[in-house]
Amino acid sequence: MTASVQDFLFAAKQHEIDELRQLAAKTELVIVIGHLVHSLQKERGASSIYLASAGRRFGNIRADIVLENGPLEEEVRSLLDKQLESHTPAAARLYTQMAWVLIGLDSLKTVHEQIAGLAMEADDAIRAYIQIIAYLISLIFEIVDTAISPDISRSLAALFHFIQGKEQAGQERALGALCFASGRCDDAARQRLQHLVEQQEYSFPAFTELTSPSALGSWRVIVESDNSARLEYFRRILHDAQAGASLDPGRSDAWFDCSSVRLTAMRTLERMLPESQEELCGLQIA
After folding, report:
1. Which of 29, 77, 143, 215 reaches 20 to 30 Å from 36, CA-CA?
2. What are 167-202's pLDDT values in tens digits?
3. Which of 198, 218, 199 is nearest to 208 (CA)?
4. Helix%, strand%, coil% for the chain, nearest 5
C-alpha cells in the first residue's frame, strides 16, 4: 500500500512531538544544573576566603555548602544516566559534553580534600571551580543548540546568556573576595576583575534582547537596586587599589555579602526562565 500525504504529515508531527518531549526532559536537566552551578558558585566564593585567610575564616560556611551540594551533584548524575538510558537520538556533541560534566564532577572530591587541607592555592581553587562550572554551562549550550522550535530556541538562548553572565558575576565575587581577604589587589587581579565586568556587560544585554517582558522587568529591579549601587562602590575600591597598596581584609565579608545578594536575586530570576520554556514545550505538544 502506497503511503499517503496524510501518512507523511502524521509521521512528521509525531516526530516533532517526540523531539519536544525529549527537550522537556532535557529542560529538567537544565533546571538541576542551574541549582548545582549556583551552589558551586557559593562554594567557590567561600573557598576563596577560606584559603586566602589560611583557614581562619569561612571554614564552617564552606563545609556546610559542600555538604549541601552533595545531593545536587547526585541528582545531576542521575539525570545524565536517564539521558543515556532513554536510547533517544542525540547529537554526538551532547553526549560528549555529558562525559565532560562527569569528568568535572569526579574531580570535585579531590578539590574538596585539597581545600580542606589547605593544600591548594586560592587562585588554583578558583580556576578548578571555573572549569567544573564551565563544563556544566557548556552542556546547557548544547541543549540550547538542539531546540527545534524558534520560540523555545529563543527562550533557551536567553537562559544561556543569563547563566553565562551570572557565572561571570560569580567569578567576580570569588576573585574580589580573594583580593579583600588577602589584603591586596595586584595588576593581574584588577585586569581580570575589569574583564569580568566587561563580559557581564555583553552577556546581560544579550539576555535582555531575547527574554520575555516579565523577566526583563525582574532584571531591571536587580539593576536599579540599592545593592547594585553598593556593588559599584566596592568595585571602585578594587579598581583604584594601587599595586602594593593594602586593602582592608575586614571588607571581604561585606563584598561577599553584597555580591551574594546580587547573585541570589539573579538565581530567583534564573529559576523563572526554564519554567517558561516548559510551558512552551507543553503548548507546542498540544
Report:
1. 215
2. 999 999 999 999 998 888 888 889 999 999 999 999
3. 218
4. 85, 0, 15
